[in-house]
TrEMBL record, chains A, B:
Pfam short name (any one): ADH_zinc_N
Name of this chain's protein: Alcohol dehydrogenase GroES domain protein
Domain Enoyl reductase (ER) intervals: 17-292
Molecular function via GO: NADPH binding; oxidoreductase activity, acting on NAD(P)H
SMART domains on file: PKS_ER
InterPro entries: ADH-like_C, ADH-like_N, ER, GroES-like_sf, NAD(P)-bd_dom_sf
Taxonomic source organism: Sphingobium chlorophenolicum L-1
Keywords for the protein's UniProt record, in alphabetical order: NADP, Oxidoreductase
Keyword Oxidoreductase carried by entry: yes
């Protein structure tokens, strides 16, 4: 097989704070060993992709050229990005496509001609050379669009459930709960009988979850949010939360409500209840600081939660069980919805950029690279 | 043996927000079973005691009577204290004294006539009826003053070291590092060869630690604190911090500096380094909210740390090793220093209250109840 030529999206921050996002041509050699060459057919634009693609760049006032955006990175954001200065970054955590060539290893050969979901970065491209172990063969008849989001959201939602169980918790709280991920979590919780408190930020999001039959929905924009939250936590017994927002006092409100519930029938201790209350931050929809009021005793933990460390901490058998569940329920439990389908070139158009970078819940874009 | 009569300190918050701290007489029966009766001779006023004794009460404008203080609890603090309303709270985590009577159990009888350190609450009193397992016999010749702080600070400092090792960390950061606890930690770290970054808040505190031969001392009041902190973290490899302050952005600064150090030689990842950075909050010298900038990737954890849950999570053999180390080094490694010695009645004097409640580093009071 000869070399393959294709386009890919690159994002480069220079030392003057100039961010260049552009389409670049690349030449991919024939795959060797355990590698396969995937012709990419669909890739979702996830919030985690946007953080790498644009970070906090000023996209309102950027220069939008032919296949090229030049934007200013604000001074405040540049220090945290020092590690990427001068390095063209490939973008796109996951996608789906067809394996058009493979190395000689049997696990690679086994995928030739198959439609696969792929994870591993650089999926905002027409082709991707990657290890066969980064691919999951899709069920017969599945479209690339159906398989494009088969990794990040499904395994994150299933990872929350595994993390909850490992920590000895019986019920959980989820924020930004009307997202694609949140909708999956609602369906998983229903299937597995896990009590779930869904925190949303407006009535439209609450309506989405009501439509799915979610039982506990609390709207943080309402005046009576704190008592409603506490009631839902009392009804479910949730002592662990997964938070996509990060900034502000929401995590404190959640932990405070949990503490109120678990300490209710205990004798007073100035250290609070001994029952551990856990919160994980897995996103940053609000980049402002997290405000911890510490009005929830001393038995609490807050940490970052990421998919890849979770996968690394999970045994092979469990992982295969999770992946099989995703594959078997791709168009039901783990279905994703997209607002728009755009080409790689269209992904650099001003209107599209400003729309998909707003990260509004339920308005995800899909890149169709061919 | 007949009943024993003595005084004890009580703190009661009523539902109108009035805090009454007073001396009360009590009658203690003869000990039974595994219990012993301790004539208390010394008890330190630790920050954790003050939180229960006064919490956030307005002590400047309180009414100081004979053996009785009446103070207002600010509205903002009352909600968190709802669980103690109407209940007279005994005060004093630890102390030392002499066992003057014991129940029939051999472990209780073995302590009769011995001077012991005691833990378990209610030590701001003349007598305490308590289980023999809450006592540790002091070495021959040890004074009550030498044994009064044998539990909380020594086991907390040793607990930090154990917690560090359990988490796979090699070096640690400590804040408010010139405290009695901090000074113990400096000596323990020297004895055990553990690299320790000491964060202090002024030059006088730095001088105390220099006098002990501490190697890494960083003053958070200095303009160059961030780079100095990062240098010290780089020099030690610290990836865990124990924080007595709680409020403000100090924990963010520590985690940020750790992240800068551990990610230095890694390829850029927008999620930050995979190396876990851990912070524990074990005190609240600053009761304002903790501000998490989250400028330290996703591999971090912050939690509360308390002595009792640590002890409960520790096997009996380790516990005995820690207690033996304290007993064998009571006047050296684990020596405490006191600014003043006061009676139970003097502990209710306005001048004394305002002085010891200021919780200034290195100005601890000792109650001498007889």
């Amino acid at each position: 097989m000869s070399d393959t030529h294709g386009l890919k999206l690159l994002s480069t921050l220079d030392e003057d704070g100039r961010l260049v996002v552009e389409l670049a041509e690349e030449t991919l050699p024939a795959p060797k060993g355990g590698d396969v060459l995937v012709r990419l057919e669909a890739a979702p634009i996830n919030p985690s992709d946007l953080a790498l693609l644009f970070s906090a760049a000023d996209l309102q006032n950027a220069d939008y050229g032919e296949g090229r955006i030049v934007a200013r990175m604000p001074e405040g954001a540049r220090r945290a990005l020092a590690g990427r200065v001068g390095q063209p970054m490939v973008i796109g955590n996951e996608g789906a496509g067809t394996v058009i060539a493979a190395g000689e290893a049997p696990e690679a050969q086994a995928l030739v001609g198959k439609r696969v979901a792929v994870i591993g970065g650089g999926m905002f491209a027409q082709y991707r050379l990657i290890g066969a172990d980064a691919c999951m063969a899709l069920p017969a008849g599945a479209t690339a669009e159906q398989g494009a989001s088969a990794f990040v959201n499904p395994l994150t939602a299933l990872g929350f459930v595994e993390t909850m169980k490992r920590g000895g918790h019986k019920a959980m709280v989820h924020t930004a709960a009307a997202s694609n991920l949140g909708q999956m979590l609602v369906r998983i919780a229903q299937e597995d009988g896990i009590p779930l408190v869904n925190i949303v930020r407006n009535e439209a999001q609450a309506a989405i979850l009501r439509g799915l039959g979610a039982e506990h929905i609390v709207d943080s924009s309402k005046d009576d949010f704190p008592p409603q939250l506490q009631s839902a936590i009392a009804a479910t017994g949730a002592t662990i939360a997964f938070d996509a927002i990060g900034g502000g006092a929401l995590i404190s409100q959640i932990l405070h409500a949990m503490e109120q519930v678990v300490s209710k029938d205990e004798p007073y201790s100035r250290y609070g209840s001994n029952r551990i209350k856990q919160a994980y931050i897995y996103g940053g929809l609000d980049m402002s600081p997290t405000i911890l009021t510490r009005s929830f005793g001393f038995a609490w933990n807050i940490g970052g939660w990421l998919l890849f460390p979770f996968l690394q901490s999970t045994d092979a058998e469990t992982l295969e069980r999770l992946r099989r569940r995703v594959r078997d329920n791709l168009t039901t439990t783990f279905a994703s919805h997209y607002k728009a389908r755009i080409s790689l070139a269209e992904a650099l158009n001003r209107d599209a950029v400003l729309d998909y970078n707003a990260r509004r819940t339920g308005e995800k874009y899909l890149i169709v690279p061919h």
